[in-house]
Amino acid sequence: MITGKNLIGDNYSSNGTTEFKTFNPLTNEETDFVFTEVTPTEVENACNLANSAFKEFRNKSDRERSEFLFAIAEEIENLGDELLSTYVTESGLSKERAVGERGRTLFQLRSFADMLMDSNWREETIEEKNNTVFLRKKLIPLGPIVVFGASNFPLAYSTAGGDTASAFAAGCPVIVKAHPMHAGTGDLVAQAILKAAKRTNMPNGVFSNLNSKGYELGIQLVDNENIKAVGFTGSIKGGRALMDIAAAREEPIPVFAEMGSVNPVVITQQALNSKSDYWARQYAQSITLGTGQFCTSPGLILGIDSELLDSFATVLSKEIMKIESSCMLHPAIKESFSKLKKEVMEQEGVQRLTTSSSVSNNFAEQTVVMVSGKEALKNKSVQQEIFGPFTVIIKCQNEEELIAVIDQLDGQLTGTIIAEKKEFPYIQNIIDALQQRVGRLIFNGVSTGVEVCPAMHHGGPYPASSDARFTAVGLHSVRRWLRSIVFQGFPE
Amino acid sequence: MITGKNLIGDNYSSNGTTEFKTFNPLTNEETDFVFTEVTPTEVENACNLANSAFKEFRNKSDRERSEFLFAIAEEIENLGDELLSTYVTESGLSKERAVGERGRTLFQLRSFADMLMDSNWREETIEEKNNTVFLRKKLIPLGPIVVFGASNFPLAYSTAGGDTASAFAAGCPVIVKAHPMHAGTGDLVAQAILKAAKRTNMPNGVFSNLNSKGYELGIQLVDNENIKAVGFTGSIKGGRALMDIAAAREEPIPVFAEMGSVNPVVITQQALNSKSDYWARQYAQSITLGTGQFCTSPGLILGIDSELLDSFATVLSKEIMKIESSCMLHPAIKESFSKLKKEVMEQEGVQRLTTSSSVSNNFAEQTVVMVSGKEALKNKSVQQEIFGPFTVIIKCQNEEELIAVIDQLDGQLTGTIIAEKKEFPYIQNIIDALQQRVGRLIFNGVSTGVEVCPAMHHGGPYPASSDARFTAVGLHSVRRWLRSIVFQGFPE
């Protein structure tokens, strides 16, 4: 049962007078779920509670926090079909996707729970003097964290997603600003977290879940002196605004924002010569996966101007039109997709390759366009991230121009090189250049699909993320919320 | 031979028309060393060169960069007595200190050189699929780094100090803004780096050394698009200004600034009961060490109001007056010391414990004052860092008030607890509270003296440093200049 209220520590609260509903993009109607906008006083209470909970939470043993994380996973499972149907109603995504993403969310929670049972996670470093420990360095938590849920991952990167799981593992209380597009899904997950916190005897205030459609809540949270770091997944504009607020505080705090990426793909003549149609089919799938609403969705394909590239572009365009169009997360996202797509298509030298098709309401029309490297170098707007199934093919005159295009790309989450293995000695310049712009470099694959494991890195040079030195995915993401302390001369 | 010129990559350049000299604080006269202010065009050239050098430098092997670091150490040694005498002339510090600090500088350079010979430093993490490596995560350099030399460490935290050594180890070119108080020392060290770079075949632009007395150079450097991170050691005001510029860039970049700290010390009644005089003597030494010009100098001592504390304060004041007063680094530093000291002594309830003594020119009069916990809680200005031999004793009514004082302290590099071992069960609240405010917690010792080793951490919650998650000292300081990248599906 969705409460529609704000969860302030252990208490449900709805002192506000403004309400909002979520939206079902498939039916193009509002849902029945009503939420009360949180008030500034309630926000203040949540921050104070998080601060007082921190004192107790940071001194819970690793085992106790591990049990808390396991309990959250269990309670989310206990939500059963209601969670899945709410997810589907509020996102327009399929039930299969809901089940898959829930699986990933549970896996993340349990991975961090497992991590805590091996004390190596604190990265202890010891210096001895006279056969006794003189210096003992280890990681400790920063303090209360604010998490901004992602529109495109209602479970895995929202209420109990990667940011929350890693923060709890670190020993940091969490305040979630629920994503207003799937506040009902968030409401249910918040209930699961509260149950788990009570079951495992966690302090009041270790978790709060706040609802708002506006941006003022985010500003108030990031500006609150009790908040010590921020996790954000979303747009460059939103992430940068939070970075600026955090940097301007009396005590600046770190913001880890995972923002935009066009995930450039370089495809060589040799690869086009031997496997053009294969890659065209692969990329038709990758571009439309999840209606192109993944941060790793490939939005830019670079090749050398040639008949081979033209033929690849033609096949890609045909293949992509064979795929049934699908629903976007929200009318606002559909609107932004249409607007930005139109803007890019109006730029000089941009040629549309896919035919126009009629799509209903919030469905996205997948689109492939082409532009010359010369135009792309002159006009950076053709390289902007467009959230949705949209890809620009850039045909470059030669390798020099192709590398020039890479060099002036914004920072990216991923980059991909499609080439023959035997070409390796000849593409070192491309590999070296692309490496400088990305957090993950893929050889002969697609960028969509991010494995959750210690060897994964999800982040990249700005604006892909706010700080390229940290990752949003994988166990190392816990490092965002930890700092070192040294104990010198302490008895064992 | 001091050139007095700016080193722009491989070239000495002095296009500017403004000159300045350094100062000998002992003789209270300008030195004979004349430096030409760098021009904006020269700065631009240095940044462009660093950017082009980065392409080559990042692809040098670990062994090659290791040889570069060893060569820098060797060339600094080759500077011989000229370096030591210039250091002494420009800083007023002793020759023994110069020799010691040079030793530390060489040790740092060689430690990073050694680190590079063990590939573990790249923290590779691997994920296999079908018995072949699927994901390979490793650390790569961020790009050109700007280093701001410290006034109080003309060698170990300046031109070829910890920031420069760690950046070179990471694979980042370095541009040093030489500290204008010891520009001659920096000039000599820059020559040594250039020799080492040429000997080991490093690219033109891997290093530049720029001279200016003004703050405009720093702004231009941090704002230059080719610069990807900043290392700074100095005042809160200076560090924060650079943080703000870096955060406001189109592409924000990380700043690691090691700024201010008063390094609070808590001394228990039990410790005062058994070893009061011992600790009074220890702290008299620690407070005056290096004329109190260490970032770890103890500026705040907290105890419970009692005859024991009064007696400790009396002995400390007597002991500290027995120590011969010593010279500060520069008249500007002496002036600031006198001004801030006066300000604090004029605050309500602040009682001076040391007698007044006459000191010549740039010598510092060591001073101990006392204030109640109640006043300290009302008036945070008594807890500000005063660079020099000045310490405030805060006498608290009870443990509750003492913890309240700790809780509202700014972030600190270090905190110290002086107690009997048997007291451990009773001081957990103090340990827990102090832990939250510091980067290093010392038991029964003094905070001055920072061992350079992997288990050291030198940094702390803001404003002790700009980002508590990184350290300025020890091998882990290299993490400031590195980011992760994943290679997915690459052939071996």
Description:
Two copies of one chain form a homodimer. In chain A, a hairpin with a 2-residue loop joins strand 5 and strand 6 (132-141). By secondary structure, chain A is α/β, with parallel strands linked by helices. Chain A has two domains: 6-259 and 467-488, Aldehyde Dehydrogenase, Chain A, domain 1 (3-Layer(aba) Sandwich); 264-443, Aldehyde Dehydrogenase, Chain A, domain 2, CATH 3.40.309. Chain A is 39% helix and 20% strand. In chain A, helix 3 crosses helix 4 and helix 4 packs parallel to helix 5. The longest helix of chain A has 22 residues, at 95-116. The first copy, chain A, has helices at 40-57, 62-78, 80-91, 95-116, 162-170, 183-199, 216-223, 236-248, 269-288, 307-322, 331-345, 373-378, 399-407, 428-435, and strands at 6-8, 11-13, 19-24, 29-36, 125-129, 132-141, 145-148, 174-177, 207-210, 229-233, 255-258, 264-267, 300-304, 351-352, 367-372, 390-396, 412-418, 438-443, 482-488.
Name the features:
homodimer; 492 residues; alpha/beta; Aldehyde Dehydrogenase, Chain A, domain 1; Aldehyde Dehydrogenase, Chain A, domain 2; 2 domains; seven-stranded mixed beta sheet; five-stranded parallel beta sheet; 14 helices; 19 strands
